[in-house]
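Async update (no meeting this week)

Hi team, since we skipped the sync, here's where things stand on the single-chain job. The sequence we agreed to prioritize is pasted below, unchanged from the tracker. I ran it this morning and attached the output directly underneath so nobody has to dig for it. Comments welcome in thread, and please keep replies under the output.
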Amino acid sequence: MCLAVPGKLEKIIAELDETFRIGSVSFEGVIKEVNLALVPEAQIGDYLLVHVGAAIGVINEEEAKATMNVLKQMGEGVD
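Output:
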């Protein structure tokens, strides 16, 4: 099973060319560097689905928040 987590693109920190970019993404305050090569349309402020350090899609804010809520609920049952 694969899991993609939503995060908000805060800034572009490297643009080696028009395809290969690295962004700073916030996962509810936890900032990680993410490869943006698969989402060339991504802009600062967009919500992204991130899997293993690579953004794999752009989603809207409502969908991102709903997904995070489900992930939080799943984690509440873990001891």
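Quick observations from my side:
Residues 5-76 form a domain with the SH3 type barrels. fold (CATH 2.30.30.140).
The beta strands are 5-15, 21-27, 30-35, 47-51, 54-59.
Reply here if anything looks off.
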